[in-house]
Amino acid sequence: MDYSRMWLSLLLLVAILTLGTMSYTVIEDMPVFDAFYMTLITISTVGFSEIRPLTQAGRLVTVFIIVTGISTLTYFLGQVFSLFLEGELQRILGRRKLVKQIETISNHYIVCGYGRIGKIVCSELSAAGIPFIVVEANEGKITELDRDLRLYIIDDATTEEALKRAGIMRARGLVTAVKEDANNVFITLTAKGLCADIFVLSRASEEKNQEKMMRAGASRVVCPYLIGGRRMAQVIRRPNVVDFIDDTMTCHPLGLSMEEAVISTHSPLVGKSILESNVRSQFGVMIVAIKRSGDEMVFSPNPNEVLNAGETIIFLGRKDDLDRVNAAVS
Asked: What is the pLDDT of residues 110-135, one digit of tens each?
């Protein structure tokens, strides 16, 4: 929609009203209000008679107002109608497209809450190309969600209906990042009740509530304020280490990144040691840690460590190399 045309037509309409009022005032010696009234009924073509008989010059002014005013008014009203019609059609069609995408999406994440934390989570998922749906209860967030091009549902995430609409049975995981810890606990319980094996990442505003969320079924609990405080302390103590970690965990010009992959039963790496797997020479990446069953984590494993199916390997390398080794491992 070209708004400049609408504003230009409105400006011309006001100019014609002003010019007509001044003309009737000067030529016909009418009071200002009578002159404005005469101009208005002429433009609107309501069919009212003249306030008083006009002179030849007054009739010429009337002809000018009829020719220019009516066409300008018609054009202006057409622009206004188009504005509302196009906006309504876009809203309806956009909503239908959104619903269709939500109904067909799978292997995605559900992000509950689009506040400060939720926005950051969505930005990171979007940058990584991971599909997700936002469930937000506040209708005031619709404009922001549309602007950010998010798939979203306006509903209360604590209800089963909202999570079902978000496709929880097809989802890879759920992130609950609403402000109130009680709601995060309730969302976790609801999600686990619908899908017992779904991965749930929960936000905790207060450190004391982390254990409660774990008991409610959360797979991981993150306390942003606690992490933020620790990070600030680490920046003071080890700024270069923090910079290196940031570079490997985000999109950085160096291209280094950290990735994890679960060794499948059909992977050619099963039963081989790190040295025998030739991961470093073949793919150009480093194995920095291995997570074994029972949450045992082996950091900086030696070359003789044997790789087994079901274990998680954490790599460090360039993104292209990580994609290749991820495919080989999985």
From this structure: 999 999 999 999 999 998 889 999 99
Closest CA relative to residue 181, chosen from 160, 202, 158: 202
CA angle 97, 102, 105 (to 5 degrees): 120
User: Closest Cα partner for 184 from 151, 221, 155?
Assistant: 221
Tokens of 217: 């079924």
Phi, psi (degrees; rounded to nearest 5) at 262: -90, 130
Residues in the chain: 330
CATH class of 3-99: mainly alpha
Taking the CA atoms of residue 144, residue 146, residue 148 and residue 149 in that order, the dihedral angle to the nearest 10 degrees is 160
**Domain 255-329: which topology?**
Alpha-Beta Plaits (3.30.70)
pLDDT the model gives residue 167 = 94
Domain with CATH 1.10.287.70 in the chain: 3-99
pLDDT of 220-275, one tens digit each?
Answer: 999 988 888 888 998 898 888 888 777 766 655 556 777 888 888 888 888 888 88
Greatest distance between any 2 Cα atoms in the chain: 109
Higher pLDDT, 305 or 318: 305
For 138, half-sphere exposure in the C-beta direction (CA atoms, 13 angstrom radius) is 11
Q: What is the DSSP string of 120-186?
A: HHHHHHHHTT--EEEEES-GGGHHHHHHTT--EEES-TTSHHHHHHTTGGG-SEEEE--S-HHHHHH
Read off the pTM. Answer: 0.60
What is the CATH number that goes with domain 105-227?
3.40.50.720
